[in-house]
Amino acid sequence: MRIEGVALRVRGDNVDTDVMYPGRYLDIEDPVEMAPHLFEGFDSTLRDRLVEGTILVVDENFGIGSSREHVPLAMRASGVRGLVGRSFARIFFRNCANLGLAIVRCPDAVDATADGAAVVVDTEGWVEVDGARFAAAPTPPFLLELGDAGGLVEWTASRLVRPPADDDRGAS
Amino acid sequence: MSRTLAEKILLAHADADDLRPGDIVQVRCDLVLANDVSGPVAFRALERMGVRRVFDPARVVMVADHFVPAKDARSAELQARLQRWSEEHGVVFYGQGRGGIEHTLLCEEGWITPGAVVAGGDSHTCTYGALAAFGTGLGSTDIASCLALGSFWQAVPETILVELASAPAAWVTGKDVILAVLEQIGVGGGTNAVLEFVGPGAAALSIDERLAVANMAVEAGSETGIFPADAAVAAYLEGRARRPWTAERSDPGAAFRRRLRIDLAALEPLVALPHLPENVVPVSSAPRVRVDQVYIGNCANGTLTDLRQAASVLRGRRVHPRTRAIVVPATQAIWRQATAEGLLDALVEAGVLVSTPTCGACFGGSNGVLAAGENAVTTTNRNFRGRMGSPDAGVFLANAWVAAAAAVAGELVHPQEVA
């Protein structure tokens, strides 16, 4: 998966999912309604700088704590298409990959990125920042397959064999 | 070939003949769990997948525990949705008044057995490692895929072996064991790894205390925190386990990422200072901050053992006038047993508010959230900024003895000062 976008730098190690999406909003189910609360406990001004095609560029161990998928759902609903980080917490990383976001570890690219930089993320293993290319941690084959499918919803759907009795036309 | 306990469990559930750390495998679930927060979001993903029935209704459990009892119409709708969906799909549903906090509840109800793989839509699903299960937290789309296919993708983790030497010193509990681990490896030190707890200190911990240890493995970034099954686990599961099981352990020659050694006899109660669970200091060198609220409960430390510890400190004493104290038994069964033992009455007499089981204020949901400028001593598992309410509140994580002592003293003190 290869995406192009504009960098938004999010600074700080161990940024947790509680500050990115406070627990009191966990009763929201619609990602569009989640989006106005993204980064609320961390830095709300970041939210106003998200545009279609934003690539978040983050530091160490980003996304620790709660498994709440509300964070990447709100990110995706706000235009975020990829993340480049020094490292990620496990559940947050897999949530992003499952939602079809391009997510890679590439500390050198993080060092080279300023807000507004033109970024290209290729999950095969590189990141370009304003034309300078950096090697990223390679994405395992399964996750490349997941990305090519569009995410885990699409990947799972492709694995399901629906019995004939379940066919829409016959079920009425 | 020598394997770790986690590798053995994964291999027994994987679509592979062999595996090694870093490999991504599809892992079959013995149980899939979601709650009133993760479930409804998963159901939306299921609809988008075109899924109409779950892979196996007998291996799915839904628990309403986060916004329970409902704080408003929207959270009430989440519970109603969870119940309706459970009825439609023929899966077990534990609703308000019939269960409690999911992780304590599922152990109590015999759903968790050694060697099982449990996928849970909650990061603290790692709690099941206390019973030698590979319990691991996943997001809602992962849970939807588990409900559809009965499996999830997993990178095979390495293992960090934590050797617990000797039985715990006075006032030291399972909470302190995991805080000691966090002090050593930090909130990222366990990433892509399982914590495995062995040694005489592990054997000396009760099941309740092992739950507290395993529960916070995710705070180190780990997939799960696992105790190999022993006689204590067998006794706990007698008449309770819903499936047969066998005990496994890591092979003698298994490779570990690293080894930690913690001498429980040399520990004292520990406290994680705001705003990160790795900010761990001994309680005797923690600042004696004013305490506005004490909260004893949650999926880590709302067990009968915690309630007994709290009651032993608070019986015959009064909660300090400047402090509010909340105790949350984790399940209905614990609530009843605590009533039978006179624990709840002793707590109420001391001025404690005893709540019904709920995740409640632990995640800033309801039932005791914090105001700006307040400090809380809690037995919960996260002290991130704003976790329990205002971003300007401070949360200090500690064991139930320390929390109860803070309720009496109105400040953060060593429990021996009030005993």
Kindly name the structural category of chain B: alpha/beta
Structural class of chain A: alpha/beta
Order of strands side by side in the largest beta sheet of chain A?
4-3-2-1-5-6-7
Number of domains as seen in the coordinates of chain A: 1
Numbering strands along the chain, what is their spatial order in the largest sheet of chain B? Answer: 4-3-2-5-6
Give the distance, in angstroms, between the N- and C-terminal Cα atoms of chain A.
39 Å
Q: Tell me the count of domains of chain B.
A: 2
Percent helix range of chain B? 25-40%
The number of strands of chain B is 18
Sum up the overall morphology of chain B in one term.
globular
Throw out a few tags for this protein.
heterodimer; A: 172 residues; alpha/beta; Aconitase, domain 4; seven-stranded mixed β-sheet; 7 helices; globular; B: 419 residues; Aconitase, domain 3; 2 domains; five-stranded parallel β-sheet; 18% strand
Would you mind describing this structure in some detail?
The complex is a heterodimer of chains A (172) and B (419). Chain A has one domain (2-170): Alpha-Beta Barrel (Aconitase, domain 4). Chain A has helices at residues 17-20, 31-34, 70-77, 90-98, 107-112, 141-149, 152-159; strands at residues 2-10, 54-58, 80-85, 102-105, 118-122, 126-129, 132-135. Chain A has a 7-stranded mixed beta sheet. Residues 167-172 of chain A have low confidence and may be disordered. The N and C termini of chain A lie far apart (39 Å). In chain A, a hairpin with a 2-residue loop joins strand 6 (126-129) and strand 7. Chain A is an alpha/beta fold. With 419 residues, chain B is α/β, with parallel strands linked by helices. Chain B folds into 2 domains: 5-16 and 23-241 and 256-263, Aconitase, domain 3 (2-Layer Sandwich), CATH 3.30.499; 272-417, Aconitase, domain 3, CATH 3.30.499.10. Chain B contains 14 helices and 18 strands. The longest helix of chain B is centred in the first third of the chain and has 17 residues, at 73-89. The radius of gyration of chain B is 20 Å and the shape is globular. The N and C termini of chain B lie far apart (52 Å). The model of chain B has no long low-confidence stretch (mean pLDDT 98).
